[in-house]
């Protein structure tokens, strides 16, 4: 691999070996220390790397089916998701997505949202390059009226014009959104499209009718290669992304001084192949140890509680951030939605498509969600929706579920139909192999947010 400087939009001091105002030491390798540093850095980077894979496909790779058209533009999905959608793991089949990535280097961007009817739910969810949820607003918090919201990158000190309802200031110069709008049923698609068309992004200069500033320099993006990005060359991807984090958060100053010892820093070139063998082996071992630690953390995680939120919500717990990205990239914060689920039955056996299961909610223990709830099946280990003969991917309180005489609701989890009388409550699973079930609750109760409410165990039939 040839060493190269990726782009030229950084200050010269960054290209000479600084980042965020920190002087970066020359890489100094004591192999044991370097391995530990690489492990911690890999865990720190994991969410950013997986997010970059999504961003690259959506904004750079014009041949990717996920391509949205570049930066600062929406691509709307106005249909229920199916097994063909692979934009992110554990995709949401309740609220079709409106995707966009904003480049705030040249100037701020303004989002305009339309007014919506009384029974329409939407949420504008914005995240930075770390996947922190720095802005979540919509019908639950800001109401149903039309409005304008401004997103300003680090270092912007301009004047906020009249007509802006709220200003958001993320830590990174590039941010993303998964805006979610409720789709009630197939014949609701025209109404959904009308609302999505009302989500409008424009530069601040266009909003105010003033002259636009010079465009930001082009970026030499690294082609997305998951094997490379999650291996010992993760540093190359991380250094690229850190270019868009110009002002290191005070809580991370010491961390980046430590990371600098193995060549990590915004805009720094990193040539894995050119490293001496002991140094290359230290980084390789650290990346492998980080991946093993993440797999262990994932194996004990069954709820989204504490995984998604702001930097302050997560408390700089980078393992939580990594687990969240692995299990459900771009999840909402708990005030908006909570996700719980399992890939094992009540006897702790892995769920297997060759078996039949039920998920039963007693009348007094239905999911406590003020907006709506749903259950979705995902195949393992990829965590994508599973193809099935009736093209049904989720069931919930908007699905016409049939309650029993005692008011309980039972969902049948199996590959074949449970029979005509139960088919309304049938949620298909793969014909073989593992799967998991995720229960989403929008507008979750306090009991859900605090972990006091628990999803009933999944019961194996027979």
UniProtKB/TrEMBL annotation:
SUPFAM superfamilies assigned: VPA0735-like (SSF160935)
Residues of the DUF1214 domain: 336-445
Pfam short name (any one): DUF1254
Residue ranges constituting the DUF1254 domain according to the UniProt record: 71-203
Signal peptide feature range: none
InterPro entries xref list: DUF1214, DUF1214_C_sf, DUF1254, DUF1254_sf
PANTHER family for this protein: BLL3101 PROTEIN
The protein's name: DUF1254 domain-containing protein
Organism the protein comes from: Roseococcus pinisoli
